[in-house]
Amino acid sequence: MTAPPRRVRVTSPRTSAARTRRVAPTSEIDSRTRLGEVYVSSLVRAQLRLAVGVLVLVAGLVTGLPLAFWLFPALREVMVLGMPLPWVLLAFAVYPFLILCGWGYVRRAEYNERVFVAMVAPGTAPPEGEEPDR
Amino acid sequence: MSTPYAGVGIVLVALVTLGLGAYGWRFSRTTSDFFVASRSVRPALNACAIGGEYLSAASFLGAAGLILAYGADMLWYPVGWTAGYVVLLVLVAAPLRRSGAYTLPDFAESRLESLVARRTSSLFVVAIGWIYLLPQFQGAGLALGVVVDADDRLGGLVVSTVVLVNVLLGGMRSITLVQAFQYWLKLTALLVPVMFLLAAWAGDGATSPATVTSGGMTGSEWSMPTGEGTQGLYTTYSLIAATFLGTMGLPHVVVRFYTNPDGRAARRTTVAVLALLGLFYVLPPVYAALGRLYAPDLVASGDSDSVVLELPGRMVDGVAGELLSALTAAGAFAAFLSTSSGLTIAVAGVLSQDLLSRGTMGRRLGGVRSFQLGAVVAVAVPLVASVGTDGVAVAQAVGLAFAFAASTFCPLIVLGIWWRRLTDAGAVAGMLVGGLLAGAAIVDSLLDVEHHGWTATLLAQPAAWTVPAAFVTMVVVSVLTPRRVPAHVATTMVRLHTPESLRLDRGRAVRRLVG
Q1: Contact at 8 Å (CB) between B288 and B115?
Q2: What is the pLDDT of residue B515?
Q3: What is the distance between the alpha carbons of residues A12 and A7, in angstroms, rounded to a whole number?
Q4: Residue B449 DSSP SS3
Q5: What is the pLDDT of residue B445?
Q6: What H or E segment, with its residue span, contains residue B386?
Q7: B193 in Cβ contact with B185 (< 8 Å)
Q8: What pLDDT shows up at residue A133?
Q9: pLDDT in tens, A68-87
Q10: Which among A118-132, B157-171, B191-205, B272-286 has the top mean pLDDT?
Q11: Least confident of B48-57, B78-87, B366-375
Q12: Dist. CA B221–CA B25, nearest whole Å
């Protein structure tokens, strides 16, 4: 029995093989390829979904009020802090709510943009911060 | 309740406006300065300027007057005027800034690659601007008449002169400072008197305004947030539709977004505007509620619009009361001046770009000259109209302008930003349908034709049916004309939606005058 032959590492420079072309996503977008379109529409769709979400929240609560007061007239008589409930809601409470909605939207919209930048131009600007809470 | 202090206050506001404008004149040299202050306005300053520009006579005087006269269902006006900015923020703010266009017609042309779409939008910008300027001039005449016993036409003349001098000499750069100052003036002019008024009210035993019968309404009728029956409910929803969706189509609001440095700043500016508006709109309902106790006669005599001007003199005695009245009068004048300035700039920009700078005359005039000629025309037409007509209620006319903007520009901007398949044919058809329907309702209400039942309700508050009609037309005609989808829509979408920090090919926006 002879000792097994020494292992020889077989390598090939593969000089004749075609190099995999690495195309940056930004140039996919610039040359309007299908892939580039997918990148852009992913951003557009994310922002639209966010916008519709905020609108549903605002419209749901704000436009739900007339309906609620119309369906349940007793609500109009409820007194809060010495004021009728419709007054408390429409004259005062609605404004902080709208400002909060706007502030939350800006945080999420900027986050969506950072994710997009990190995806199409990795290394240039890492997404800072955590994903904001809904 | 004419007082010499009020006259002094109004003169001071006019002088400070011109003085701040003069500070800006030194910097206004290029066309870009005139139109967009060379895009160098910081979000905080820009937000104050937007707030100052937006709070018009309807907000300062009209809202309190309507709530006093009709009760809590009128609270929807200030709520809608604020919520309009939420809609603008989430759907429009950043993409509109990134579009790189200066005006709504610029946006229409660069998005749809069509001159017809541009001309149609120009027409509607001028129409909305004039519908909106008319009540400002009339309101100014009314206010001046109340506080210094002047002829009703004088106020409109004073306001239009101050606005014109400022706009002619300084354009957007000087106006930005003036508008920012006027926001804080308007807030102060409501906030300081209200503290004295509330103190006087507490001293009188703090009766709840919702428990008394005054101005022909019981307390519980007055606190109802919707009108009578299903028609009242329809009116409330139609008002919500007009104010929520109309804000984004107001030409003087939209032009402000181009002065932001980038899309991110445009968003942050809008949130700051929301906060400033929320702060301001808490105050007019307080005046209305106190007016129920101390000035119920104004409802009967049809002068409820002047409740903000009248209350301080009635509730606080002596010189203090007169000074507080002067402060509210000065604030009201600031409201007329700032909104009129913004509208004048927007209308003048469109007039000079699309009507005056065409042909040989326009070329001879050059950018700044034709802008100035546009400003003169922009002010002259509604001024003549305000002298010639008897006048519509301030808040009613402004409400119609919102409905008109919601029926024309809201579908154009929203679909233009979010829907690739919008075509020029669809956009023009939709704007025409919305504009004609809303326009017919406006003409009808100006002519005071008698209607009854649902016809009257539908025509008085048209947005709930004209806005959907415009949207449906735009979508259906666009789908039927798929070959007219603009050739460079993909590039436009990249420009509208991607953050500026990325180096991408964004194409070129249409910029008619600069560049």
Answers
A1: no
A2: 27
A3: 16
A4: coil
A5: 76
A6: helix B367-388
A7: no
A8: 53
A9: 887 887 777 777 777 788 88
A10: B272-286
A11: B366-375
A12: 52
Q: Percent of chain B, pLDDT > 90?
A: 31
Q: Which residue of A has its CA nearest to B499?
A: A113
CB A117, CB A125: distance < 8 Å: yes
- How many residues belong to chain A? 134
Report the gap between the CA of A124 and the closest CA in chain B (Å): 9
Using CA atoms, how far apart are residues B397 and B400, in angstroms rounded to an integer?
Answer: 5
Residues paired with residue B214 on neighbouring β-strands, in sequence order: B217
Give the separation between CA B412 and CA B500, rounded to whole angstroms: 24
Shortest CA distance from B71: residue in chain A: A87
Question: How far is residue B510 CA from its own chain's centroid?
Answer: 25
Average pLDDT over residues B157-168: 83
* Residue B374: partners with Cβ closer than 8 Å, 6 or more residues away: B347, B348, B349, B350, B351, B352, B355, B356
User: What pLDDT, on a 0 to 100 scale, did the predictor assign at position B514?
Assistant: 36
Mean pLDDT of chain A: 81
Contact B305, B61 (CB under 8 A): yes
- Domain assignments of chain B as residue spans, ordered by start: 4-223+251-389
Q: For the beta carbon of residue B454, count every other beta carbon within 10 angstroms.
A: 11
Q: Choose, out of A62, A80, A98, the residue to mutate when testing the contact with B (most B CBs < 10 Å).
A: A98
Structure tokens, B97: 């800034």
Q: What confidence score (pLDDT) does residue B215 get?
A: 65
**Token code pair at residue B198:** 């509330």
Least confident of B88-92, B350-354, B495-499: B350-354
**Preferred mutation among B90, B190, B492 to probe A, highest tally of A CBs within 10 A:** B90
Residues pairing with A84 in the sheet:
A79
In the numeric block, the tokens 């106020």 are attached to B155
d(Cα B365, Cα B379) in Å, to the nearest integer? 19
Q: For residue A93, give the DSSP letter.
A: I
Indicate if the pLDDT at residue B79 is higher than 60. yes
Single out the residue of B461, B410, B407 nearest to residue B434, CA to CA. B407
Phi, psi of B324 (to 5 degrees): -65, -40
Kindly list the distances between the CA atom of residue A99 and the CA atoms of B29, B85, B271, B501, in Å, as whole numbers in the listed order. 37, 10, 7, 27
Q: A47 to chain B: which residues are within 8 Å by CB? A: 497
| Mean pLDDT of the residues in chain B | 83
pLDDT, residue B16, reads 81
* Superfamily for the B4-223+251-389 domain: Sodium/glucose cotransporter (1.20.1730.10)
For residues B470 and B434, the answer to whether their CB atoms sit within 8 Å is yes
Residue pLDDT, tens place only, B440-450 = 988 887 776 77
> Helix (H, G, I), strand (E, B), or coil: what is residue A84?
strand
Query: Could you tell me which of B282, B238, B309, B384 has the C-alpha nearest to residue B9?
Result: B309
- Could you give the CA distance from residue B137 to residue B380 in angstroms, rounded to a whole number? 11
Instruction: Return residues 411-430 of B near A (CB < 8 Å).
Output: 418
What lies within 8 Å, CB to CB, of B5 at 6+ separation is: B322, B323, B325, B326
